[in-house]
């Protein structure tokens, strides 16, 4: 295995202050240099991405007076993938008076992340969570309310308090529309210039600093260079490396991967979250998987038949012949265990042959008891749009027959390495939202991604980026700067290459094959043998891709095949790194389950003595051994324990 | 089942378009409409032909990116988004016409892809609450009666797909505009800018080459989020009130 990677010098976060954890964020805000309002206009920031993390940052930096340029690949910033989030957003408001606190949210998140995240970052996230809700309400986000006019809460997997704020089943949409409107307001004010249908294809690094991006205008094919004093990547997660996932079709790794190739460290790539409640695959034409919000686990009960091969109509199976396996194995959390545990449990019962539906790849999520207890109208009010969606996709009525669900790839905890300031190891390159690795360790708790995206964009980055920008404006760079020229030429050459191969296989056929390799060997359960096999097959398939892919059309037009080809090419490289990371981490933690490392009753077994670190990888060339840099994790406030949700 | 598709093909914004027929075989009932197009596109690609361009992203009915006119109806025969339409809504042997949104305010970019930037510009004109980051009071400082919150929410479900415009004989964008005016106007936080907002948004709407609203109701009939027609009455009320009071 040694030949697969080498180990380099350890790294460290140098920005988080010492001292009591509750004071660190204040201390950092105080020590960070400020930029005089009059100088802000002269300082420019590029932001790639208009999801929660990007739109909130663009709006806030625009309000502060910086000169912001934003990019997204959709036709409108409002369509970023954040729009699809359903269930909710956490905040330590303790409006329920149920014992919640900043400390408890911090504790739950560190524990939920299986002790693989940084305490300082997570504590700050919990502190800031409180302000997010205030901010969103002020913008007009229509959160669910009770009859008294106050905000309603629900509980989510992995916790025992009700701290999740929600807007029916479309919390992401409402939060994103809030951020989008704030962004549009700044566009109108002239502080933000928005480029929709533009895809970032390269990072420009000059004198070791991130100074711009190369983008392709997706309508005309023009390759453009944009320059700034700092670059922020808020480009989302890379779950689509699996082809099938709950992510939007266009979600990709290109922006962060291109930065990785330019020197940015990629941290914990193997930490992927498989969501337990998705609609099962129905056929090989399947293009994506649809999530059924985790909030359904509040009232739905998960079960499979006790007997292998029991294919009766679920309604005919009597109570005593059903196995409510989560309630049985985890009596204190029941159906609300964290996602990784719920997913693996579903896989296990299906592996035993007790799965339901086509191919035996499904388990029941049953609302019969909830309907009895709350009445159908209450269930409808709470989950109506999710039930409708389920019915539209499957043709089955979940009010009458239990839903069928199966785990699917959902979220990626890994991402570009950043310090406490959200700055990568390339000065001037900041990374926010799902694109960075920072706050969720090896497993993210439900309703915490929206919280992190908005925390990063509204409150963290706008306070830390000043410290960097205060040294600017930096030396002028333009199209003629050699590094910029080189980057633009590299992009053009790659486009030409993809268009000239003219092979026999479609981009999607490669993507699907890559996805199935990843799902089989780097999915819910990973083994040494399987990962070696995967690496081998990925390399072979990548070579074939570059020999035999067929990309029709030309660059100078809207060319969706070309767009996908570029993304898949980067997924191939990422996939290999994910497998190397998964192979080197010979422990199970959170979303990373190594079959070789489990307790007697099949739970994930960490090895803190060996693996309590962030694995930050340095790129050395396609197919070359990456260099591993370790950031040691220390826990002063939460005692490291094996998680237990029993 | 087997389907005949007749699809609008147009190379670029300045090219002339035309309907082109394709046969799609072995279509499964459980496929979504877009997955059926994927299957066709794979075949076209292997044959070296240009695949059909269409906008889509979430495929969950929430991003508002997808949207084509199917047999003359925006988003097709079910009241939902194109990505949530499944082939079980069609029969073996059907001929299905697929065209882009047609409206002056939505120029065609290629095939089924149109430019809906005009909707963003309506929002820019005033579709927001000015609440700079960091200035917000505690979220519980102002309780919002549940009925108002629910009405605001209903209007806020608009996904900006543009089907209302495509369906309207006048190509009016009034349902979209009204949804935003109502969402923000129902909330206490939206009051200070309420009078000015509606005027600015309606002005922008008119500048963008959208047609006027003559209360036909085709928009609400196709809206995948069920934004009701009376939302436009709410807008008109706000607009009149605002013009009369001169509070702009
Ligand atoms: C179905 C679903 C439901 C979810 N529900 C919840 C939930 O209830 N609660 C919760 O907390 N989390 C939830 N999540 C997770 C959460 O939605 C995401 O993690 C989060 O929204 C990511 O936000 P982001 O701003 O980092 O990125 P995104 O919203 O993914 O935005 C990425 C942006 O980057 C742009 N972009 C990407 N690549 C490029 C490029 N190369 N060039 C130019 N632009 C580019 C895109 O155009 C887009 O604007 C859910 C996720 C899914 C898939
Ligand atoms: S009002 Fe309805 S049809 Fe019009 S843009 Fe909004 S969601 Fe689409
Ligand atoms: S693809 Fe997002 S609404 Fe249809």
Automatic annotation (TrEMBL), chain A:
Cellular component GO terms, alphabetically?
Answer: plasma membrane
What EC numbers are recorded for this enzyme? 1.3.5.1
The main location class comes to membrane
Cross-referenced Gene3D superfamilies, in alphabetical order? FAD/NAD(P)-binding domain, Fumarate reductase/succinate dehydrogenase flavoprotein-like, C-terminal domain, Succinate dehydrogenase/fumarate reductase flavoprotein, catalytic domain
Provide the residue span(s) of the region labelled Disordered: 1-20
Q: Keywords, A to Z?
A: Cell membrane, Electron transport, FAD, Flavoprotein, Membrane, Oxidoreductase, Transport
* Name of the protein: succinate dehydrogenase
From TrEMBL, chain B:
Q: Which GO terms describe its molecular function?
A: 2 iron, 2 sulfur cluster binding; 3 iron, 4 sulfur cluster binding; 4 iron, 4 sulfur cluster binding; electron transfer activity; metal ion binding; succinate dehydrogenase (quinone) activity
Q: Which cofactor is essential here?
A: [2Fe-2S] cluster; [4Fe-4S] cluster; [3Fe-4S] cluster
Provide the E.C. number(s) assigned to this enzyme. Answer: 1.3.5.1
What GO terms describe the biological role, i.e. biological process, of this protein?
respiratory electron transport chain; tricarboxylic acid cycle
**Record key words, sorted:** 2Fe-2S, 3Fe-4S, 4Fe-4S, Iron, Iron-sulfur, Metal-binding, Oxidoreductase, Tricarboxylic acid cycle
Domain 2Fe-2S ferredoxin-type, residue spans:
1-102
* Boundaries of every 4Fe-4S ferredoxin-type domain copy: 149-179
Reactions catalysed, semicolon-separated, are: a quinone + succinate = fumarate + a quinol
Highest taxon, organism lineage: Bacteria
Q: How is the cofactor bound?
A: Binds 1 [2Fe-2S] cluster. Binds 1 [4Fe-4S] cluster.
Q: Which Pfam families does the entry mention?
A: Fer2_3, Fer4_10
- Matching PANTHER family: SUCCINATE DEHYDROGENASE, SUCCINATE DEHYDROGENASE IRON-SULFUR PROTEIN
Family as reported in the entry's similarity comment: Belongs to the succinate dehydrogenase/fumarate reductase iron-sulfur protein family.
Q: Which NCBIfam families does this chain map to?
A: dhsB, PRK07570.1
What is the name listed in the Swiss-Prot or TrEMBL entry for this protein? Succinate dehydrogenase iron-sulfur subunit
Q: Which organism is it from?
A: Actinorugispora endophytica
